[in-house]
Amino acid sequence: MGDFRYWLAENRGTLLAVLVFIVMFGIYTGNHSAGFSGMVVTTAANKGVLLALVAMAQTLVVLTAGIDLSVGMVFVLANCLASQLVVGDGLETTFGVVVVLLAGVLCGAINGIIVIYGRLQPIVTTLATGAMFYGIALWLRPIPGGDVNSDLADALTEQLPGGIPTSLVVLLGVVLVVWVPLRRSEIGRAIYAIGSSEPAAYMSGVNIDRARLVAYIVSGLLSACGGLMLTFITYSGEASATIGGSYTLNSIAAVVIGGVSLFGGAGSAIGAIFGALVLRTIGDLLFVFDFDPLWQPLFQGVILLGAVTLGSLRLLNVKNRLDLFG
Question: What are phi and psi of 164, to 5 degrees?
């Protein structure tokens, strides 16, 4: 019983995000003219997976008590790069995918190195590097366009037998290959320890610099995965500051809605994924109920405010900071 209560307390934010998403998506499909059909689910999944990947990227940095304002621009840079390189035959396409992912890794490494060895605040560092990444994206793709391997794009954005959206399978694969091993590794535990109490982690012999650098590198990789998926969905690239800024802010909102503490050390990428799906479903609900899309920021703000308030209530009830982790 004690273990269950601990598990419940640790995953309360994630479970709440899952519940809210199920209710909202149930209302959406229940009122959609096509109902719970494969096409409706696939369309919603393709939109949700993009933000979910960027939210996962944001989660890793937030867990270290930092914040990454460059995730949206890495996302845009990967999109522009993919629209140049992920074309041609199988070998050329594979080469392009690898280069795009390595570009994301490099962006994350640059962030991490500056934060760790430059001793600069993450918010300032990533704001500056984000502008730099956007500049490179604009240089690569001054006007929207480009192309992508259509066979691969169709395979990753359509449906598997049984109507299962392929993009959801891709997201599940990323979770199983990237998040789960990292969460269970020594570095993963170190990332949580840094966010919980960096002095205590240091006194315990945790290699803080290595863990923080890995968090930024994986964050860049996940943002690049999101940009790659965007290219597969749109078949083109666009260096849009609006898109980059929107995904950065929405990734922070998704992290909060998913129960990840902005103070670091608590939460999970799974919660952030469902936080992202909740945000995307708001737009779908406005569509199905024929609301003006201009109402979307208001509803997103209300849900975000509710999530922040619930998190604050928990902090107000804490008499000892260690209660958050026990």
Answer: -80, 125
DSSP character at residue 118: S
Alpha-carbon span 65 to 83, nearest angstrom: 34
Q: What single letter denotes the amino acid at residue 176?
A: L
Return the SS3 of 164: strand
Three-class secondary structure assignment of 209-226: HHHHHHHHHHHHHHHHHH
Distance separating alpha carbons of residues 36 and 266, to the nearest angstrom: 34
* Side-chain half-sphere CA neighbours of 161 within 13 A: 0
Q: Supply the pTM of this predicted model.
A: 0.91
pLDDT band at residue 326 under the 50/70/90 scheme: very low
Q: Which residue is associated with the tokens 């919660």?
A: 271
Tell me: the pLDDT tens digits for 257-268? 888 888 888 888
- Cα Rg, the chain, nearest whole Å: 19
pLDDT in tens, 195-214: 888 888 888 888 999 999 99
pLDDT of residue 205: 86
* CA 298 – CA 128 distance, rounded (Å): 29
Is the pLDDT at 119 greater than 90, yes or no? no
pLDDT(136) > 80: yes
CB atoms near residue 178 (< 10 Å) = 18
SS3 of 292, please? coil
C-beta separation of 311 from 324 below 8 A: no
Query: Residue 247: which of 60, 24, 18, 74 has the closest Cα?
Result: 74
How far apart CA 173 and CA 117 sit, in angstroms, is: 33
Give the DSSP H/E element, type plus range, for residue 165: strand 164-165
Residue located via tokens 């096409």: 39
Q: Please give the DSSP secondary-structure letter assigned to residue 285.
A: H
